[in-house]
Amino acid sequence: MELFLHYSLIPSLFIILVLSFLQRREHRKQRDDTSHLLGNRFGIIIPLDFVGTFSNRWSYGIAFGATANKVMFLFSEGYQPLHIPQWAQAFVLLIGGMEVGLSHFPFFACLSSEFRLVSSILGFSYSLIWFAVTILYIIQCPHGQFLGKYETVMFYWPSLLCLAFLLGRFLHMFVKSLRVHLGWELQMEEKPFLEVHQAEHVKRLLRKAPLQETKKSWFQTRVYEWDPCFQFPSRMIGTTVLAFICLYLFIVIEFCMFMYVRDELDVFEGELENYIASMNQTGTLTPVILQVKELMNVSKGVWLVTILPASLTCVSYLFHILACYRKHMKRLWAGNKHFLPLKFHHPSSSKSVVAIARYSGWQIAYILWGYLIIHVVQSLCGLMIMYSLVLPVVHNQGLEMLQGLGIGTLTISIVLGLMSLQVWIATSFFLQPKMSTADKQKPLALNNRKAFHNFNYFLFFYNVLLGLGACLSRLLISCILGTWLIARIDRTIMQNGYEGADMGFSAWIGMLYVDHYHTNPVLVSFCNILITGHRERRLQQAIKYWCLNQSAGPRVSARSRTRWLLLQTLVNNPKLVMLRKSRPGHSSREFTQILLMGSES
């Protein structure tokens, strides 16, 4: 498959040249004879619009899914075509990423091309080549070293499914474009500048009376509520689909490594048993060896059991990130930036442009590394539970375990009780009464100051010891939350004031700002009004003389039309009368009265 990746660049470049030849350049600059010979051919083609594409989203997402195996190949740093020094490894990975992108470029270019008939034929042929080669590879090497039978099928069935979907999609495009070419169907309209959901969002904002809320289901109330006035761009759908498939492949790879390590541990455990048998269980290392065997058995079981909760956690993060994207975008549309740290209220434009290019790749990498870290943390928690609760019962030490658990619980309860007692004493004796019965709490005004100073003095030495436990608990909670949220790129794990050091969160904020500036429904609607008005004016200028020749009715002067529109504006907005510039010799109110009298006449 790696060899075919290199050879696939030949048909990929051919398809790119064909689509580029069909694509015409709108602004042609003739600089030399060569460019004059090319004419306006060989325009720049794009795989997809990463900012404003809302149509054909799932096709782009499935096309991203077809690249999952190659992305995991790059992620494992298996791309080594040349033997180079370690310091140049970044350049090799860059070349590998460019090669993978170029080999899969025809999928996206054929989906987004305006020449549907040609692009559907080329896309179908290229997808069929990849599908056939993948099937041939699975047939030749169906089994593997770690999982045994059908190991290759487990790795490649997501890519096969995505390629099969692309085959069906290109076939549908071909049939539809052929019917249009033969005149059996009408040509599809040009892609609208203003999407339907954006127009509905603006209508919702301009609606005076809010719509009556219907009764929401449990899923809408607790999990997710569908919004017909919002759509995720193709970039978010493609990132999510690719992240799901890469997470599945990463889990399969991890399970293969677990099977390999388990087999090695079984061999090591057999050697330990042979040593114990040779010593007739009387050696000095026998208790240690038994504990090591128990640790290996417990670790294997805990690691296997925690695969499911770790994977479910990362899957829930992917859905939650989509929900957070919608929530953050709506807040930015409303002009609300309070949910962002203060230093991100005005981000750098250049960094934001780079951020939208980084986001998709970084999101996938964060999910994969986050899964591994979460799995390790959950396994450590499982080991703690096993050694503190389960194994003592297995070794008939349940009473000692319950005794130690009770003492620990009682100690923590007493410490927390003393902390709560301090708060109660401060509330009851050292604060002045409420100034009003409507107040929620007492004012921050000291009372019984002498008693307060004694209270503060004697608890000073105790709080020194209590602060040690508080410091350790702070460290423990920070480690747990940091590792648990490491896969969440939409939430920083840095403290206040150090958010800029979180590069993933910075990429998330930059991506939000780029989408906010380029897909804001209000801004897009305003630009659509300007474009539509410009087209209408050009159309009116084109048919101006025809209208003059055909019209036999009374003509209306431009001045009268302007004054009539001004009258309508002032009637609908009376407060604008006081803000108008006055005419020389008349006040604004007098001029408005003259205007009204003139319009009535």
From TrEMBL:
Subcellular location: Cell membrane
Superkingdom of origin organism: Eukaryota
Transmembrane annotation, as ranges: 6-22, 58-75, 87-109, 121-139, 154-171, 241-261, 302-325, 366-390, 410-431, 459-486
Membrane topology: Multi-pass membrane protein
Keyword annotations of the record: Cell membrane, Membrane, Receptor, Transmembrane, Transmembrane helix, Transport
Name of one Pfam family that matches: RBP_receptor
Name of the molecule in the record: Stimulated by retinoic acid gene 6 protein-like
